[in-house]
Design goal:
Layout: H1 2-6, H2 15-47, H3 54-62, H4 72-85, H5 89-108
Helix pairs in contact: 4-5
Length: 109
Amino acid sequence: MANEQNLIPNSKRTPKELREMTSKGGKRSGEVRRQQKTFRELFTNFLNKQVTMDKLKEQMEQFGFTDKEIINKNALVLAQFREAMNGNIKAFEMIRDTMRRETSRESRS
């Protein structure tokens, strides 16, 4: 209840206060967007790197992946597929939903 008493509606703030608040919000928003972009770039780079685990490489070769295709992104797809084939309903639903999104994008193009 004490916090509610400290809240000041924007209609009772000065134009200077509103400008300062807007500026702070914009700066923070920019920081967050830059952090998210950096995270996406790091993750994308990792996903596109070659698989380094020998056992996983062998398994992917057995599934017909070529040397160029033996990357972390495809390893995740294979792992998700295996989970679904072993009866993991959540894994199946994720694959189904992903395929629906892709099909929807293709039909819009």
